[in-house]
Amino acid sequence: MQSLFEYSNKLVSETKTEFVRYMFHQINWQNRLVGLTGPRGVGKTTLVLQYIRENLPLHETLYVTAEDFYFAGNRLLDLADFFVKSGGKYLFIDEIHKYPDWSKELKLIYDYHRHLKVVFTGSSVLDIKKGGSDLSRRAIIYGMQGLSFREYLALFHGVEAPKFTLQEILDHRVDLPQIPHPLPLFANYLKKGYYPFASEDDFGLRLRQVINQTLETDIPVYAGMNVSTGRKLRQLMAIVAESVPFKPNMSKIAEILNISRNNIADYLMYIEEAGMIAQLRTATGGVRGLGKVDKVYLDNTNLVYNLAGENQNTGNTRETFFLNQLRVNHEIFSSPTADFKVDNLDFEIGGRNKGSKQIINVEKGFIVKDGIEKGFMNVIPLWHFGLMY
């Protein structure tokens, strides 16, 4: 037990706090039970350690990871009980989905220890949602994604930029005098700026490991798949990465992968919830729910460059970025006339020579252009949408 406290204090003391993610200030840390989910590698562990260092007394706080060998012979519930009796008030549990029956024990900890605040994180959104039914009335769960272009500028280049709302962007109110020529930085962000670990050596290899662990371990364990099916998921990811963008044809995919077409929709859903792809749906509502899947993208542009390499399609990459950045604060759907519909606005994405014929009859339409620094009228630079969170 002593080793857990020593390890916790060591990690907290070594954590840097000069830069914090957007979610840091959005979480209501006063809730008794808080969950933080998101894809592997987006910085959830660092965020909770930063919060501890900045706000909590170490003698009342304990950070543990559910992967610790300690839990091979000890229960989480017993740890919480001992911690509370020792004067503990704040318990942080990382990688919670690695602990068997985690949701049941969290429920009991919540019910038994009313003065204990618990924060847990999980790399696999799938497993968190699978266990969430026991915690639906107790836990407040937040989802976090990777770096925005704005956060990338702060973390990797020391450039502090304000956040802009969608309306401010459309009104051409973006002004970053500290970056006279943002396009080279934006191009680098698209390739390796979405994950905080991009500054480490062998980023491409590390990202590939994240992909492989998600597809070959997280999803198969959750869905009861075998290893060969995990490889099929990787093939499906590669098809999406090289498409323009990908419009799902279930029969054709089934033929390419040599699997039943009835499984394709489930596979895509699993990969989406694990944070590897994003499915763009129509705006159909009511009893028809979320609407039909119109296009499938990789989750972010770093995945596009990593999986497709030189075969990546520029148009696909632009649309992937736009969808990824807008979805944090807005619902985004496919548009019958343009590429995307956000609220009652239509957006057509393209390069610097993109025309406006797709939106000529649209009441509120915008052309989003890559390769330009400043906008005019209804033409908006693509990189501006990376400053929203």
The count of β-strands is: 12
Task: Please tell me the total number of domains.
Answer: 2
Overall mean pLDDT stands at 91
Sheet bearing the most strands, described?
5 strands, parallel
> Outline, from the CA principal axes?
globular
Alpha carbon gap, first and last residue: 39 Å
Instruction: Please mark out the parts with pLDDT under 50 across 5 or more consecutive residues, or reply none.
Output: none
Largest sheet, spatial ordering of strands = 2-3-4-1-5
The percent range for helix content is 25-40%
- Portion of residues in beta strands equals 5-15%
Number of helices: 14
- Rounded to an integer in angstroms, the radius of gyration calculated over CA atoms is 22 Å
| Structural class determined from secondary elements | alpha/beta
Order of SSEs: HEHEHEHEHEHHHHHHHEEHHEEEEE
Would you write up a description of this structure?
It is a single chain. With 389 residues, this protein is α/β, with parallel strands linked by helices. The protein has two domains: 2-143, Rossmann fold (3-Layer(aba) Sandwich), CATH 3.40.50; 149-387, no CATH class. It is built from 14 helices and twelve strands. It has helices at residues 2-14, 44-55, 76-85, 102-112, 125-131, 149-157, 166-170, 183-192, 203-223, 227-241, 250-257, 264-273, 301-308, 314-326; strands at residues 33-37, 61-65, 90-94, 117-122, 140-143, 277-281, 293-298, 332-334, 340-342, 345-350, 365-369, 379-381. The strands form three sheets. A five-stranded parallel beta sheet has the order 2-3-4-1-5. Strands 8-9-10-11-12 form a five-stranded mixed beta sheet, covered by helices on one side. Helix 8 (183-192) crosses helix 13 (301-308). The chain starts with a helix and ends in an 8-residue tail after the last strand. 41% of the residues are buried.
